[in-house]
Every structure is written in C-alpha cells, then in structure tokens.
Write a structure and sequence with these properties.
Layout: E1 9-15, E2 21-26, E3 32-37
Antiparallel strand pairs: 1-2, 2-3
C-alpha cells in the first residue's frame, strides 16, 4: 500500500476587494486549497 502526500502547487494569486491576498493551490490528485493573507493597513517602508 502506498501513501499519498499532498504537494501544493500554486495555481493563481489575486487581490480581493478588501485588499487581501488570495492564493489558490492544487495537488495533482485534484485536492484544492484557498489561503487568504490579511494585508495590514500600514504604510510601506
């Protein structure tokens, strides 16, 4: 018996209307994930 290890490959990145970064990832088996990164309202350095 073999074990499957999910390998997350980034498919797409976007910015939401609220300014958050959204990352879409997918494994070759078909499993998919969406991760949202909250961007702080700080001024760039």
């Amino acid at each position: 018996m073999t074990n499957h290890v999910h390998v997350r490959v980034r498919q797409d990145m976007a910015v939401s209307e609220d300014g958050d970064l959204i990352e879409h990832s997918r494994c070759r088996c078909g499993e998919a994930w969406i991760k949202t990164y909250r961007i702080e309202d700080a001024e760039p350095e």
